[in-house]
Sequence to fold (322 residues):
Amino acid sequence: MFIRKKPSWQISENEVTPEGVYLNRRKFMMGAAATVGAVGSAAAVHQLANAATERTLMPLKHSKSAFDPSETLTPYEAVTQYNNFYEFGTDKSDPAEHAWRLNPKPWEIKVEGMAEITGTFALEDVIDFSALEERIYRLRCVEGWSMVIPWVGVPLASVLKKFSPSADARYVAFETLADRKQMPGVRGFLSSLDWPYREGLRMDEAMNELAFLAVGLYGKELPNQNGAPVRLVVPWKYGFKSIKSIVKIAFVKSEPTATWNQMQPNEYGFYSNVNPEVDHPRWSQRTERRIGEFGKRKTLMFNGYEEQVAQLYAGMDLKKYY
Ligand SMILES: Nc1nc2c(c(=O)[nH]1)N[C@H]1C(S)=C(S)[C@@H](COP(=O)(O)O)O[C@H]1N2
Ligand SMILES: [Mo]
Fold:
C-alpha cells in the first residue's frame, strides 16, 4: 500500500477558504451552471469565489470583437468553474479549486524546430499586448457540452510568423507546463495522462484566421484554470485541441503527438474537427448541451465556422480523418 506524505503546502481548499465562500462555491457547482443566470447574487458569489481562487486578474486593453456569434455569453462563473484541465485533476471543479497553485508570472515559451528564429522567449516577447482583440467564440467539448466565451488575445498566425517558419514545417506542436509542484494532477500516482499535455495543428490550420492565442477572457487576464497565462483557442475543433498554459511551440515536419489522440486513437483523432456526422464511438455528436441552457442544441458542422475553415479539408474524408 502506497502512503504518500502530504507536504505542508498541499492543504485542501476548505482549510484555506472561509467556510461561507467554500459552501457558496460548492452550491454553485452542485446546482451546476444551468442555474447561475437565475441566481440573483451571482455577482456577489463571483466576488467571493474569486477572492479564494484567483489571483488579481488585471484588465486587458483590447479592441472590440469582429468575431461574435451573437449568442448568449456563458456566465463568467461557469466559464471559470466548470473546466477541463487534467493537470489539476479530472473533475470539472478541480481546476477552479487547485489551479491557484500555478504561477503564471513570469512565463517563458520555448520556440524550436524548423524556423529562422528559435529560442526561449518571455511571454511579452511572444504576445503583443498592445494589439489584443476580443473574440467571442463557441467552445464545443468532445464530451457533448458547449459554451460561448469572450476571449482576449491575438491571432495565432501573427505570433507564428514572427519566428519565420521554414517551408518544410508542415505542422506546429504545442506543450503545456508539466510541473509536479504546481499541478497536483501531474504528480498523482494514478496520474491520468502522459505529461506534458501535447497538441498540434497542421500549418495551414494554424495560420487560419480563426486560430487564436488567448491571454484573457471577459476583458481580464486568464484565470489559471482556463490556461493562464496563454492558451490556444481553435473554435472549429473539439475543446481538447485548445491546449492550455503553453510552454513550448515547435515547428515540425510530420504530424506531432497529441495527448488524447495518442491515448485513445480510435476515439480522438488528430484533426478532431467538430462534426455532427461523425460520432464518438461511445456517444453521438449530433447534439450538445449549452451550459446555462435547458435541453439540447444541434451541433453545427465545424462548430458553426464552416465558412472560414471548410476549404482546409477539401477532398479529405472526414470520417477517416476525424
Ligand atoms: N493542458 C491542458 N489543456 C487542455 C485540457 C487539459 O486537460 N490540459 N483540457 C482541454 C479540454 S478537454 C477542453 S474542453 C478545454 C476546456 O477549456 P476551458 O476549461 O477554458 O473551458 O481545454 C482543453 N485544454
Ligand atoms: Mo473537452
